[in-house]
């Protein structure tokens, strides 16, 4: 949907106006999110990793982002390198 020439990204609830993000909630993961790489250790879970790197109130979207961007289709394995969203 176009609003006065500015794109509205309904998928993440985000409207951009000249590079300023408006309408983001803490559960959103914008496409230009800051990321870091993390090497999975024995006993790690995606939830546990996200709790160390991401401070969102609702991390369901962040978890889904990690699974999607890292092509995870099951359990993570020690030694696997993941891209993780950071902060907020």
TrEMBL record:
SUPFAM superfamilies linked to this entry: LysM domain
TM region(s), chain numbering: 6-24
Keywords: Membrane, Transmembrane, Transmembrane helix
Every LysM domain range: 36-84
PROSITE patterns assigned: LYSM
Pfam families recorded: LysM
Domain of life (superkingdom): Bacteria
UniProt-listed InterPro entries: LysM, LysM_dom_sf
Record-linked CDD domains: LysM
Stated name of the protein: LysM peptidoglycan-binding domain-containing protein
